[in-house]
Amino acid sequence: MDRIILHSDLNSFYASVECLKNPELRNVPMAVGGSTSERHGIIYAKNELAKKAGVKTGQALWEAHQVCDGLVIVPPHMEEYIAISERVREIYNRFSCTIEPYGIDECWIDCTGSTKLFGSGVEIAQQIMDTVKREIGMTVSIGVSFNKIFAKFGSDYKKPAAITEITHENFKEIIWPCPVEDLFGIGRRRKKSLNWKGIYKIGEIARYERNHLVSWYGKVGGELWDAACGLDARPVSPYGYVPPIKSISSGITCTSDLVNAEEAKKVIYDRSVNISHKLRKHGLAARGIEISVRDINLHSWTFQGQIPYVTQAWHDIAEQAFILFCKRYRWSSPIRSLTVRAINLVSSTQPEQLSLLHDQEKRTKNEKLEKVMETIKKRFGKRAILPAMLLKDTKIPTDSPGELMKMPNMIYG
């Protein structure tokens, strides 16, 4: 028996919430945008009028104003978006107890066991759409299929307020003629690589032998071929399921461009303090570090390195990250944004083999000091105590919207 998987996507979510609060915004081109002064000046979401005028998600505010004269920009209200998202998920939960959130505005819903109560997958999708419209006042697009990837494709295929069913009989006709980047999980790098090999359509992936994709991309290549052929067997995770944490990152777009190593060091140390807090919160420690840099031309670089010992201390993470940064970044251009990521994570309770090559006494002292800092932050706030270098002239925004909601990573790069 085939599974019945739905993927529900709240249309123009941020903008729709703002229109619920202020219905007059429905009658003008409107977008939710970040702060220009804090260098988060991009479009997060837009209503249909702004979309028709050419405004795009991710576009800089100044570009959006150029393509749409009279565009109204509304600042984001994340707490309200989260509250609405939770209300919508409660509706999904009436039709199935197996739902998997994808970001704040999308969910997979496994309705395989719900058909006797609510009808076919399309009938369930229609009931969900009607209920969300009636109780919340918002529209959704829903894909219905026999696996997660095709259900996601279906919700993207027609918008707004549409239901698309992808079956064994029609998926080749609907999905295969589409560009490879329309397949969930294919990012810009993988698209570029596939195009370089002469693969532009999803169907062209499927027409290759699976082992060819594996020889090019390893395990990911096989998964890519499976996805194009409709062989995605991944389950929808139960509501509330939290997948194992494979890395912990923290990044920001700076208030002005970083032009030297000392400025970059301050950002690295600030982000490392944040990562250390998250590692302690989850009972994890890191054995590796990764730095991602994006310059003013929007070119990106990623560097990885090993930490010579297991640690969750911000000072260790920052020190190793800055060493890696200095070795690898060539300063071809000033830096727009910077991300630090702790990788190769293990349990913080895992026994550690001590090394004679490192000052264990100093590390133990630093660990005790940082635990005291954590206690102070819990009581008085996360910026109650900081490294002295972060007290002034850091080019670090006072409130990073990226801390409020993280989106899952792409699957295939």
UniProtKB/TrEMBL annotation:
| One GO cellular component, as annotated | cytosol
Site positions (Substrate discrimination) are 14
Family membership noted in the UniProt record: Belongs to the DNA polymerase type-Y family.
Looking at the record, the residues that make up the UmuC domain are 5-187
Summarizing the function annotation, the protein's role is: Poorly processive, error-prone DNA polymerase involved in untargeted mutagenesis. Copies undamaged DNA at stalled replication forks, which arise in vivo from mismatched or misaligned primer ends. These misaligned primers can be extended by PolIV. Exhibits no 3'-5' exonuclease (proofreading) activity. May be involved in translesional synthesis, in conjunction with the beta clamp from PolIII.
Q: What are its cofactors? A: Mg(2+)
Q: Kindly identify the residues recorded as the active site.
A: 106
Pfam families per the UniProt record, alphabetical: IMS, IMS_C
Q: Which GO terms describe its biological process?
A: DNA repair; DNA-templated DNA replication; error-prone translesion synthesis; SOS response
Recorded protein name is DNA polymerase IV
- MF-aspect GO terms: damaged DNA binding; DNA-directed DNA polymerase activity; magnesium ion binding
Q: Which SUPFAM superfamilies does its entry note?
A: DNA/RNA polymerases, Lesion bypass DNA polymerase (Y-family), little finger domain
